[in-house]
Specification:
Blueprint: H1 2-38
């Protein structure tokens, strides 16, 4: 029972890690586009 739960968590962790990787990629792209728009003088 405990082993089964551990295996389930391990499986989910791989999925979570994959989602986290995608999120980091999206955030980097977002930051890049934010930087490009910040070059315009009306920023802030």
């Amino acid at each position: 029972m405990v082993y089964h739960t551990f295996f389930y968590i391990q499986q989910n962790w791989q999925i979570i890690a994959e989602i986290a990787k995608q999120a980091v990629k999206i955030r980097k792209n977002f930051a890049k586009s934010r930087k490009e728009t910040s070059r315009t003088p009306n920023f802030g």
